[in-house]
């Protein structure tokens, strides 16, 4: 491609990073984030999943729906209650409402500042429900059909 073609291509106006820089960036991203399907697989596996899942939303939000087995600890309460509810030797995966909310990011920051190993679950509760995983409400367990825009209709795994 010529320089003129690169400039007119909106994707390549800023050239891609070098493979070394890209590997460092994407490796770091995976150290900070987990996706909904991977969290569900870890929780569904036999034995200890090796993580604790933390819902950082309000009680009203928790009652509307939360991941089974998650710990409920609103972000504002982390500093005073984390030590009673969490073990610093077990990685914590935080979630909030969804991709338009940074509550899980704020919770992850608060936990990291207290010395916890932490990852943020991409997609939050919204994508947990949209991918068809079971969730609990104050009325009991529920499950929605998987949204074909977020999960394959006829497979257990997206192949990612």
Description:
By secondary structure, the chain is an alpha/beta fold. The chain is built from 7 helices and 7 strands, in the order H-H-E-H-E-H-E-H-E-H-E-H-E-E. It has a 5-stranded parallel beta sheet with strand order 1-5-4-2-3. Helix 4 links the parallel strand 2 (52-55) and strand 3 (71-72). The longest helix has 14 residues, at 19-32. It is globular, with a radius of gyration of 18 Å. It starts with a helix and ends in an 18-residue tail after the last strand. The model has no long low-confidence stretch (mean pLDDT 92).
> Whole-number average pLDDT?
92
The number of helical segments is: 7
> Rounded to an integer, what's the Rg over CA atoms?
18 Å
Number of strands: 7
Structural class: alpha/beta
Shape: globular
| Biggest β-sheet: strands ordered side by side in the sheet | 1-5-4-2-3
> Level of helix content?
25-40%
Distance between the termini: 31 Å
The largest sheet is: 5 strands, parallel
Unreliable spans: none
Portion of residues in beta strands equals 15-25%
What order do the SSEs take from the amino end to the carboxyl end, as H and E? HHEHEHEHEHEHEE
Condensed summary:
By secondary structure, the protein is of the alpha/beta class. It has 7 helices and 7 strands, in the order ααβαβαβαβαβαββ. The model has no long low-confidence stretch (mean pLDDT 92).
